[in-house]
Amino acid sequence: METQIMNQIITKDQLLTHWQGHRTLSRRTLEKFPEKELFEFSIGGMRSYADLVKEMLAIAAPSAKGLETGKWEPLDEDKKDLKTKEDLLQAWDHATEVINGAWKNIPNEIFQKKVVAFGQYESTGYGLIAYAIENEVHHRGQGYVYLRALGIEPPFFWERD
To answer: What pTM was computed for the model?
Structure first.
């Protein structure tokens, strides 16, 4: 065990802080969108930013809960009840609370173990969280392109708190 700790690069709490920093920036990106464009604007056949946010919501808190409990619900990206910008912001804030609550109960060992998330994606616990972060950064980048195309300056990408 001591060898593992000595070889550790990042702690569990540092990983959560990193992830929540990205989530804070993604929330600020969501806030920048005008209501209509949030749900309707698209470039090159990509999904609206609202649909991208729904995907991020489908992955984030359910991943933390799955790692905490070992129980995985099916992936639900539709989220048809999220019809307004305010709905999305409230769902985002709720997901943040769920992640923070679940995180303290996730056993450290799960980050190195294989899990099957959402009944279909095999990865380590760490790999799953890394995917959630990478997926969010990717979709936030799409949101930045949308905002720029709409003449709106996106938040500075380095401001994550």
So the answer is: 0.91
